[in-house]
Design a protein that fits this description.
The chain is α/β, with parallel strands linked by helices. It has a single domain, classed as Dihydropteroate synthase-like (TIM Barrel, Alpha-Beta Barrel), CATH 3.20.20.20. It has 9 helices and 10 strands. The protein has an 8-stranded parallel beta sheet with strand order 8-7-6-5-4-3-10-9. The longest helix has 18 residues, at about 80-100. The protein starts with 11 loop residues before the first strand and ends in a 6-residue tail after the last helix. The mean pLDDT is about 90.
Amino acid sequence: MPIAINKKRKHELRCGRFLLGLGERTHLMGILNRTPDSFSDGGKFMNETAALNHVRKMVNEGADIIDIGGESTRPGSGSAGLSEELNRTVPIIKKISQEMDVPVSIDTSKHEVAREAIKAGASMVNDITGLKADPKMAHVISDSGVAISVMHIKGAPKDMQDNPIYNDLMLEIIESLEESIDIALGAGVSPDKIIVDPGIGFGKTTEHNLTIINRLSDLEILDKPILIGPSRKSFIGRLLNKEVPERLMGTAATCALSILKGANIIRVHDIKEMVDVARMADAVKGSPRHDC
């Protein structure tokens, strides 16, 4: 019996001045963490020169979007102060936007950070709370005309992994994302600027994460582009008994399977390798099926 493959939906995402044809191929979102305590690369890119060089490298390797965060969202992390998050993100976004022709996403749940990042050149907001933490966030996005990725999270980073329980995992994720979409639309955000993310690792056990990947196509009922971020995450480490630097192949497998199940954007650290993974998964996804 052939593997169930979901044909990629032809979404077009308006992302500031950029128009991304998400139905043509899988797009890659490269991660830049400007934090001292992120689980994978904390402290590595606090220096501005190192950060800019890393972004140049990701763009040259094929990154379609650069996602910049100034506050760690790893399990157990607390909130960074507003001024600190602004200092970590806004100046680097301005320099990237001036130098490179690539959409920049700001990974934040604070409307003040989103507003200043957009002024500096960001064309997307990546809100892990799905617009539910800050009631002003949706209006900032609507007023500026940028894109928004709404994610599902159960709890907050500081406590999200404290025994998360669901009665119906996928139904609860879908209902929560529907609420986030309604918040965005209610604030005047255009329907073609909304992305959904099931939140791998955000209030999920290993079994929950595996179910999400296996049933990712369930999210197509929302009729929005699907973003997923499994890169180097702890469930890969637990399953393979690998530390963070050794999770490349596990990440590759989860990305390939996610693409076959309907992901339009994969959020990853290792762009060069995941470009090859995405292109091969896209080729399989687009190939004719000959059921035996």
